[in-house]
Amino acid sequence: MSWRCSSTTNEGLVNNLWKHGLLSTPRIREAMVAVDRAQFTREMPYEDSPQRIGYDATISAPHIHANALETLKEYIKPGSNILDIGSGSGYLCAVMAHLIAPNGKVTGIDHIPQITSLSIANLRKNPVTSEMLDSGLISIVTGDGRLGYPPNAPYDAIHVGAAAMDVHQPLLEQLKSPGRMFIPVAEGGSMYGGQAVWQIDKDEKGNVSRKRLYGVMYVPLTDAKKFED
Ligand code: SAH
Questions:
Q1: Which of these is catalytic: 6, 24, 49, 60?
Q2: Which CATH code, of 2.130.10.10, 3.40.50.620, 3.40.50.150, 3.90.1300.10, is assigned to 61-216?
Q3: What is the pTM of this model?
Q4: Using one digit for the tens of pLDDT, what is the confidence trace for 95-110?
Q5: Between the N and C ends of the chain, which has fewer C-beta atoms within 10 Å?
Q6: What is the spatial distance between Cα 22 and Cα 65, in angstroms, rounded to a whole number?
């Protein structure tokens, strides 16, 4: 299904995701049209596939981003406070920022300093996302995402863009009541035994429920490696 969504323009790509039912919410479609994927990856930006961005990281495929946004949409509204773990290229932070503007906050966290610098440079390529960095609507920080990011917690939504061995306790603690987390988790105790995306909901009373959505293959959430430039 996904390859059929590829196009030669950003709008064409988003329209194809819509046409094939991978995207169904008009405001998410608008936000994805407003953010040109070519700002975040140079090679084949309008292909519906993941691409390498360096430092062992990849920008996720557009249909994966669309599904993550659709899954979290009730919690990504104007004014929402969002944490994007393993923010990589910065693409999803940009789309989420359009969805929470004018007065929410998106914090992107990645553990490789070269990657956080790259994402800031990507966000600076467009005056709208550049202004969002200046105003603090978007913050990009370097750190271990398995610990969340306590200074800006609690979050309406937490998106995890790399596969975890478990649903880490600090992330559950930093989720609002109510709030929702999208997290790929390794199955069978090993990263190579398969992974599945889980939707974790915390209700108004703080009760937590978990729902397995579908099998996936993400880059793992790991200890940071040192990269020489
Ligand atoms: N959503 C991003 C996905 C990037 S790939 C995008 O579409 O561009 C996954 C990212 O997770 C990589 O950038 C990697 O550096 C980061 N990562 C891996 N382990 C991490 C950890 N423990 N803490 C924070 N980031 C981590």
A1: 60
A2: 3.40.50.150
A3: 0.97
A4: 999 999 999 999 999 9
A5: C
A6: 10
